[in-house]
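Appendix B, Record 12. Input sequence as logged:
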Amino acid sequence: MKNRGFTETFSRASYYQLALEQLHNRPDALEALGTPLNIHYLQLTDKYNFVDIANAQLKIPVSGSKSEGHLYVSSSRDAPFKRWHLEEVFLELKDGQKFPVFKHSGENGDEVKKE
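Logged structural output:
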């Protein structure tokens, strides 16, 4: 599969890993999905998935024994080769139920850098 390499590159990216860490810290969201939690390959044809030098936006398919949905991730960084910072992460199940997972609360870039 040619696209698998791209998906594996995304899955190693810090914004992807940080988002999944945040999901694992939300027992209510994990309970709604059910165990075991399965992370599926990104749909590279989905226009929501977007990464450039300063911004990353992903829609990660997830499923469990009870439900399935998508983990929506927005991240940014101040400059190329700087650390990525999560802006917002939320889980939306196929029934429309939403779980806020993470929301950045800093008002300026300096606060983000000091994390």
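The chain has four helices and six strands.
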